[in-house]
Amino acid sequence: MSIADNLIKYKKEIEDAGVKLVAVSKNHPAEAVQEAYDAGQRVFGENLVQEMVEKQANLPTDIEWHLIGHLQTNKVKYIAPFVKLIESVDSLKLLKEINKQAAKNNRVIDCLLQIYIADEDSKFGLGFDEAIELLRSEEFEVLKNVRIVGLMGIATNTASDEQTTAEFNELKVLFDGIKTSFFRKDDFFKEISMGMSSDYKLAIQEGSTMVRIGSGIFGKRVIKHWKNKEN
Prior knowledge:
single chain
C-alpha cells in the first residue's frame, strides 16, 4: 500500500474517535511528507531538530510541526520561529529556554510536559512529583511565552497490553489531577499525547487525544545522515 493508502486508513480510524493523528516522519524524506500532505495530512512529528528545520524549509507552510524527540536547550532557537508544539518538555531549564526563544520571535509556543511512565531507563521525562513541582514553581509562573497545553508519555516498549494500559491510565489520572489543580479554567489544557503504531488503540481507550504514528504510515525508516547527529 502507498503512504496515501496507509494514511487514509489511520485517519479514518483515529480521527473518527476524535483523536488527532501526528504522522511521525523522522528519517523519511521530504517527498514522503509531501505525499502524506497531498493525501490530506497536516500534522507531522520529528525527533531531530536539524531534520525538522531542513524539511520545514522545503515543504508547505501550513504544515503543523511537532517536535517529539528529546530536545537540547541549545537547539531550541532553530525551531522557535515555526514549531507548533513541543511535545517533549522534560525540565524547567528547557521550558525557560523555549520561553526565551519564543519571546525573541514574538510567539507563544505550546508545549506538553513529557511524563516518565515507562519501566525503561532509556526514556526521558519528568516524574509525577517533578511535574507538579515545576507547575507550582515561581520560575514557571513568570514564563509568558510558553503555554502548557497537556502531557505526553511513552509506554514501555516491550510491555504486555495490561502493563501498557496501566501506564496510559496513570498518565490520564495525572492529567486529570493537574487539570483540576492548575488549569481548571483553561480550555487550552486538553491534550494527552500517548500511543504509537503498536499501542495507539490502547491509548485511545485510555483517553489519548493525540497519537503518533510513523512506520504504519511511512513504512520502514530510511536511515539518513541525521541519524548520528545530536538533536
